[in-house]
Amino acid sequence: MSRAQRLGRRTPVWARDTDARLLRRRFRDLHLGPPQRAVLRRAIARLHRELDAAGIRLQPHVWFSEEWFSPDGVPGIAIPFYLAHPRLERLERRMARTVEGGNSTSLMRILRHEVGHAVDTAYRLRRRKLWRDTFGPPRAPYPDRYVIDTRSRDYVQHLDGWYAQAHPAEDFAETFAVWLSPRSAWRKRYAGWPALVKLEAMQALMSSIRERDPVVRSATRIESVAVNELTLGEYYRQILARRTQCDFSAIDQRLGKAFAGKPREGRARRADTWLRARRAELMRVATQQGGIDAYSAGQLIDLAIERCRERQLWLKGSGPECLQHARAMVLRLARAGRRGIKVGFAL
Length: 347
Known about the structure:
Blueprint lengths: L2 H8 L8 H5 L14 H16 L8 E4 L11 E4 L5 H11 L7 H19 L6 H7 L9 E3 L20 H13 L5 H4 L5 H15 L22 H13 L4 H10 E2 L10 H7 L1 H11 L4 H18 L2 E2 L3 H20 L3 E5 L1
Parallel strand pairs: 1-2
Antiparallel strand pairs: 3-6, 4-5
Helix pairs in contact: 3-5, 5-7, 6-9, 7-9, 11-15, 12-14, 13-14, 13-15
């Protein structure tokens, strides 16, 4: 049997479906078992090596669910279903316009974050006084949305959206991810930051469990797609409904100065394409005049581009006029960001 034939035998039937037909399939009918995709297997093996090198005797079990998470009481990691196969990843990109964990760098970043939660659970670390004194109350309610301070140095910067600021448990997981990463050079990178105190506390916590067996060993698979009766179409409709509940009023108000719905007559240019072509220039405005860092500027402009695409906005007026409005929009939002802006990151 040829290699192509062997690969064809392993290709699931639904991988040849059209999008419309695939959206009608139920999650459980995808028959997603343990991760088989090479990129996932390599990333999980790499994560295990990093844990071994740190002296942490935990190899968290993984399973496919609707999204990334590590549940309370279970020292394992749920991985979103779309990473199980390239066909599902293409569908996710079309439906959600992005793939969380869709490249090797972001995949490892998220795995390190989630394994932080798993280690917390496995060793019951949040019960310790050092954990609570460093990160805050672990049982604090999660907010629907969170206010960020883009200038704060009290938190590490790992995942997008300044996620460490969302909740004490996320602060712990983000700090763990930075601590675990072999090339983070955290002592040098965070020198002089209050966040360094958290990293040093993490070092102390990890030293206390080094070469010790986990206390919690549950292998339960919470919200596994193996028993999920939803169709993929129903799932994406729910995602869209949650997305529309986010508060984008501040940025939408600014976008309305330069862009509008497609005119009925004459030639027009799409706002998202136009903004993307001017991303570098607008980032300079945000960093040099707005006083925010390059990472924050990129996040801000990417959000504006995404909103233009979602709302199907087009240029109104001349190019120079739109550029003037776009520069003013970025500058005002950047300055607002320096004071701590409410963003549309739904938890």
